[in-house]
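Input record, target 12 of the design panel.
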């Protein structure tokens, strides 16, 4: 049985996958917390590369890794830095724009993470990206993000925003699904960049940036469809 590794986004925990778990019965599921998050041991420096290295150490060989947001970016690095470790990759609304204008908008935000108002920028970003659904759950998620230790969150978030993912996506050598729920990611351009990547577009459901919480059935369909591929 193919192991399924679940990696949450920055400031988030694996409990956010709870609405998926009933539909993943019978699968070999391995939730992995990001370093310094939700009781996981911290790193001396939580750079994107260091976080990906730590997560990679916890991934069983032959796994499919499904990562939400920053967890997807981490998964991309795991796939590229450790060829042969993963058998597939599912990117849940990960911040991986590939067109020039969208990439410029993303990288321009990295400087704010180094500034004195970074925590307010973080909160505004997360509230805006949540979408219109389940405001009480939004407050729970945002509170958890803001409670995450700065040393575990801030450098990782900065590196994700500063990253140009195009070279990594070109190098990707495993079948990959990009599940778009809110991001400014051009699925056609992504597939043109690497034919191993195919897109699943959930934006018509208006799930916001956490589709595994707001539209778990749609995310489960995408996951099970991907896992069923030969």
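The sequence produced for target 12 reads:
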């Amino acid at each position: 049985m193919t192991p399924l590794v679940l990696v949450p986004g920055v400031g988030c925990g694996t409990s956010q996958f709870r609405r998926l778990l009933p539909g993943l019965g019978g699968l070999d599921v391995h939730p992995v917390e990001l370093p310094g998050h939700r009781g996981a041991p911290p790193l001396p420096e939580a750079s994107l590369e260091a976080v990906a290295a730590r997560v990679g150490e916890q991934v069983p060989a032959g796994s499919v890794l499904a990562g939400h947001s920053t967890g997807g970016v981490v998964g991309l690095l795991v796939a590229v830095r450790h060829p042969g470790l993963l058998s597939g990759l599912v990117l849940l609304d990960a911040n991986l724009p590939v067109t020039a204008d969208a990439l410029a908008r993303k990288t321009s935000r990295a400087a704010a993470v180094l500034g004195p108002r970074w925590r307010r920028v973080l909160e505004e970003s997360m509230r805006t990206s949540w979408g219109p659904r389940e405001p009480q759950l939004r407050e729970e998620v945002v509170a958890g993000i803001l409670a995450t230790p700065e040393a575990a969150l801030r450098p990782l978030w900065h590196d994700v925003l500063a990253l140009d993912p195009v070279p990594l996506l070109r190098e990707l050598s495993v079948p990959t699904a990009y599940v778009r729920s809110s991001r400014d990611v051009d699925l056609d351009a992504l597939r043109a960049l690497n034919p191993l990547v195919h897109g699943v577009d959930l934006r018509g459901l208006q799930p916001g940036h956490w589709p595994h919480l707001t539209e778990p059935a749609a995310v489960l369909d995408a996951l099970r469809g991907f896992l069923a591929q030969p």
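The CA atoms of residues 48 and 117 lie 21 Å apart.
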